[in-house]
Specification:
This protein is an alpha+beta fold. It is built from 32 helices and 30 strands.
Length: 1024
């Protein structure tokens, strides 16, 4: 087949172009995302329970849903959080589960118990959950002419619809501002005078505010519909409606309270650069292209602005896509630079322009063709797939280098170009198949890893496999065909032209350097065979000496990088009002204004409670800054720490909700009060360690609450029920919004409550009255009021209460600090039934370590099996496999001296090295064994293998290094780690392939010969 492809260049070119064209078309259509498109097996249930405390949410809602959902199969873990007014249940299933099926099952279970849940809850929302999803952008509306309520109304009723109509936009969430509401604020003293309770008012509004169809009036062949119209036509009609007391007297509603066309109680605020605004968060459809949606929105932004009311401004507060685009472009440039450096090094090593042209054709051909299979696999262009291509660059050209270098050798033996291409390709076919096969058997396990990390690595591993397959195709088609067309034996005229080539000086110097290294290596080669045992002992000593530096290499899950963004989380004590939170926020905003690197900042007050706030600080691009984000963080930390009564955490990048801490710990126990004490001791230990910027505890100091304890005898005496008492208290203080006011097709709540002046302290509750069979009485006649502490937010893990500790590292790494904490925690006294688990990043790091460890072992095993099959020997692959172990020397030395951590990127690169570092030994020993079959003694054959393939090994290794070299300067720490591991491992591969592998092969050959003599076979081990 090789001969056919070489002698039919047009057919070969068209065959390759088919895949290139398909790949180019697919590349233009592939969505650009930050992360791979992954469907997580996670379903959430969120339930709003207005006015409820965390304890009520836990006992009345969350526990019931947890109990019924836990009956489902394939559950990995259940977590929940109970807040004021809100319960949130998070169900993670096994990866084998179909999340769409599980979504339906969870919905069915929740709907089956709706009648068992309290009447006051909103309908539970069951949905699939993607922890990677974040809004494409946040837009903010501000105005100097319109009040904030009118601004919210415009955003919610008009602008929201326009943005939702943009292709790719799934949902627009409006936040901040003031939402319109009709407030009915009742005076309890006036209500008593007119013999009315708050429940009477609510019932009267409900009875009046209704439309009822009356049916049809039919006469002859026509009919007329009849309906009763009682809904309020305007707010004045609500104020004027007549109420009938139990004694038969009537009174207009406005005489016992104020009716206002106003807004809901403010529980959330949005601020942009210190100014109150209305925010709109835009989310894309699940299969949408974030970059395209952002571009389309920006294109239409001027049109939207032109339609705004006078004095209203629309700005982009945050946009996640520039980071995606910049990261994508950065990786693409790394790929381009890697290709250029590879091409340049090939020219410098060979001096052949044609060879350089061949390389410049083969690499892009394989890369572009791979996009076709990526598209068919449902992948996107993201940092994982682009990183896979950048990582594979060197390996893509390695096969071409081996073939072309061998073609040049054949040309020097006066063969014509086509025959040289055919014979040279056939000669190294085994080496090419072996090196390509090792890549395939290494990256395939990466694509098959389990766990959440496996969902990410699938696209990484398969992208490299696709590119490698096309590289293999090119190796036996395009590369020999181009060699047959373009390469020729160097003539005297060619040599004369080279002398006038300005680059020939550099080529000559590189050639001289290679020859010098080869001559010097001859001395090392002879020396290692003079002292073979010493050579092995020294290499082993070097390998085991790594244990002295490994403790100083940090261990992380996913290292953080400078994303031109900082996030500040602010938590005030339980019971703080939104006004108090706003004061703290404004204090921080004043400090942010003084940061010269500030671009803008967006503040959200009221995230999971009015005592919480979140500030997203956008920085100018890194290249325009003199300071890194860490420097800015370190400047802010002392200021934030001095804010009274505020717990603050500052994070790199953008993160809201979930396990945001670097170190997350769940503390559990039988007695919740003892668990609280333990968690507080553990928090003190974490703070005392000195490794954390801040430490957060999910258990907060509880706020005050007033409990109403009913007197059962009095309830019976007055003919009242606990349900009526509870509803009266709830309506009076929290309010009732069951009734709706309709205007121009929109609905607004009619919110009935007591006037704020009567709901401020303990004594005000005594003014609340309800109707009984004995008349209107104060609610305190039916029970007693008690002052108590309210339970703060409650966390569950697998249906048990836990307390979450979140630590934000100021220095060191997750792995090292976790080890120190484990040691210090063991000094605390944990009774039976009490303990802790490292969760969050620690769980993910442990899972990643396990899965990558499995992938590594599988890669090593498959590589050995492949080599054993190709070499038809159980023992000869062993010297080649030693390069995997010796590459660790370069890996860990590089990590140590470059101050990079062992993280998910580093571990992936170590697995990848298994398929790369063996290629040099394969190349050298393949030629060695060919010579041994020709009768050459083993040591001489080893020298011939090493010296003949010396240039090819250097070229391929340096080409691979140059392919990943741009990653060493990447902003993303995971990319840097991958680049460091690859560079260190391949340098070690070059060194130990020449120094250790020949001796290892020599010993293995001697052992095989010994076995042959034992069995009576005198032939050389490799002879057939």
């Amino acid at each position: 087949m090789i001969e056919y492809f070489v002698k039919h260049p047009v057919t070969t070119a068209m065959l390759v172009l088919v895949f290139v064209v398909l790949g180019a078309v697919a590349m233009m259509d592939l969505p650009i995302e930050r992360t791979p498109k992954i469907e997580f097996p996670i379903v959430t249930v969120s339930v709003e329970f207005p006015g409820a405390t965390p304890l009520e949410v836990e006992t009345l809602v969350v526990k019931k849903i947890e109990d019924v959902v836990s009956e489902l199969s394939e559950i990995e873990k259940i977590q929940s959080r109970s807040y004021d007014n809100l319960g949130f249940i998070y169900v993670q299933f096994l990866l084998s589960a179909d999340v769409n099926v599980k979504l339906i099952e969870v919905k069915d279970k929740v709907e089956a118990i709706l009648n068992d849940l309290p009447d006051g809850i909103e309908k539970p929302v069951v949905a699939k959950y993607d922890p990677l999803v974040q809004p494409i952008m946040d837009l903010v509306l501000s105005s100097d002419t319109l009040d904030i309520r009118t601004l919210y109304e415009y955003a919610d009723k008009t602008l929201k619809t326009r943005f939702a109509a943009v292709e790719g936009v799934a949902k627009v969430d409006v936040y901040g501002g003031k939402e319109r509401q009709i407030n009915v604020r009742l005076d309890p003293l006036l209500m008593k005078q007119h013999y009315l309770s708050i429940l009477d008012v609510i019932s009267a509004i409900q009875a009046k505010n209704t439309n009822i169809p009356g049916g049809l009036l039919e006469k002859d062949r026509s009919s007329i519909s009849m309906r009763f119209v009682g809904e309020f036509r305007d707010v004045e009609e609500i104020a004027d409606m007549m109420l009938t007391a139990r004694d038969g007297k009537t009174v207009p509603l406005k005489d016992i309270g104020a009716v206002e066309d106003s807004f809901k109680k403010v529980e959330s605020l949005a601020r942009y650069n210190g100014k109150n605004v209305v925010g709109m968060s835009l989310n894309k459809v699940s299969d949408g292209n974030a970059v395209n949606v952002s571009r389309e929105l920006r294109k239409r932004l001027d049109t939207f602005r032109a339609q705004l009311p006078k004095g209203v401004t629309l700005d982009i507060a945050t946009d996640t896509t520039p980071f995606i685009v910049n990261e994508t472009r950065g990786t693409e440039w790394s790929i381009v630079i890697g290709i250029l450096l590879t091409v340049i090094i090939l020219y410098l090593f060979t001096g052949h322009v044609n060879l350089t042209f061949i390389a410049a054709i083969v690499i892009p051909t394989s890369v572009v063709s791979a996009f076709a299979l990526m598209s068919w696999s449902g992948f996107t262009i993201n940092f994982i797939t682009l990183l896979a291509i950048a990582t594979a660059l060197g390996t893509l050209i390695a096969n071409a280098i081996v073939i072309v270098e061998n073609v040049l050798v054949h040309l020097q033996h006066h063969e014509d170009a086509q025959n040289a291409a055919i014979h040279a390709t056939k000669e190294v076919a085994n080496a090419v198949l072996a090196s390509t096969g090792t890549n395939l058997v290494v990256f395939t396990p990466l694509a098959m890893m389990g766990g959440i990390v496996g969902l990410f690595m699938r696209s990484f591993g398969l992208t490299v496999v696709y590119a490698t397959l096309f590289s293999l195709l090119a190796s036996f088609t395009l590369t020999p065909m181009l060699c047959g067309l373009l390469l020729k034996k160097e003539t005297v005229e060619d040599k004369r032209k080279k002398r006038f080539n300005p680059l020939s000086f550099l080529v000559g110097k590189v050639t001289d350097m290679v020859e010098f290294l080869k001559r010097e290596y001859k001395y090392i080669f002879d020396l290692q065979f003079r002292f073979p045992k010493t050579t092995i002992v020294m290499v082993l000593a070097l390998f085991f000496s790594l244990r002295f530096i490994m403790p100083y290499i940090d261990s992380d899950f996913m290292p953080q990088s400078d994303e031109d963004k900082l996030s500040i989380q602010i938590i005030l004590p339980q019971g703080a009002t939104i006004e108090r939170t706003l004061e703290t926020v404004q204090l921080i905003e004043q400090r942010l204004e003084k940061i010269p690197e500030k671009a803008s900042y967006l503040t959200q007050v009221g995230e999971n409670g009015v005592e919480n706030a979140f500030i997203t600080l956008d920085l100018v691009p890194l290249e325009q800054r003199k300071r890194s984000d860490v420097d800015i963080m370190n400047e802010l930390i002392p200021f934030l720490a001095r804010i009274p009564d505020a717990e603050t955490h500052i994070l790199r990048g953008h993160s809201i909700g979930g396990d945001t801490g670097d170190v997350s710990i769940d503390v559990y126990g039988i007695d919740y009060s003892k668990t609280i004490a333990l968690s507080q001791q553990m928090k003190a230990e974490m703070e005392k360690s000195g490794y954390f910027r801040s430490v957060s505890l999910s258990y907060k100091n509880p706020k005050q609450e007033i409990k109403f304890i009913p007197d059962q005898d009095n309830l019976v005496q007055y003919g009242a029920t606990g349900d009526n008492v509870g509803k009266t208290l709830r309506a009076s203080i929290y309010g009732n919004d069951e009734n709706k006011y309709k205007e121009e097709g929109e609905e607004y709540d009619i919110h009935v409550e007591l006037n704020d002046a009567y709901t401020t302290d303990f004594n005000d509750v005594k003014e609340i009255a309800l109707m009984t069979r004995n008349g209107l009485i104060p609610v305190t006649a039916l029970g007693a009021l008690q002052s108590a502490k309210s339970m703060p937010a409650i966390y569950h893990r697998d249906r048990l209460r836990v307390i979450r500790l979140e630590g934000y590292l100021a220095k060191s790494s997750l792995g090292y600090v976790r080890g120190l904490l484990d040691k210090s925690f063991r000094a605390l006294s944990f009774a039976d039934g009490y303990g802790y688990h490292f969760v969050g990043n620690s769980e993910r790091q442990a899972e990643t370590g396990r899965e990558i460890g499995k992938a590594f072992l599988l890669a090593v095993l498959l590589t050995y099996m492949l080599l054993a099959a190709i070499m038809d020997s159980f023992l000869f692959p062993l010297p080649i496999m030693t390069t995997v172990l010796t590459s660790f020397i370069g890996v860990f030395l590089a990590l140590f001296f470059m101050n990079e951590s062992m993280n998910i990127g580093s571990m992936m690169s170590i697995v990848m090295l298994v398929g790369i570092v063996v290629n040099n030994a394969i190349l050298m020993l393949d030629y060695t064994m060919i010579k041994m079959r020709e009768g050459v003694p083993v040591k001489e054959a080893l020298w011939l293998g090493a010296s003949t393939k010396f240039r090819a090994i250097l070229m391929t290794s340096i080409a691979i290094i140059l392919g990943v070299l741009p990653q060493l300067w990447a902003v993303d720490a995971a990319k840097r780690s991958m680049g460091v591991v690859m560079t260190g491992g391949i340098f070690a591969s070059i060194l130990f392939t020449f120094i250790f592998v020949p001796v290892a092969f020599w010993y293995v050959n001697r052992f095989i010969e010994f076995l042959k003599r034992l069995t009576g076979q005198a032939k050389t081990a490799v002879q057939r």
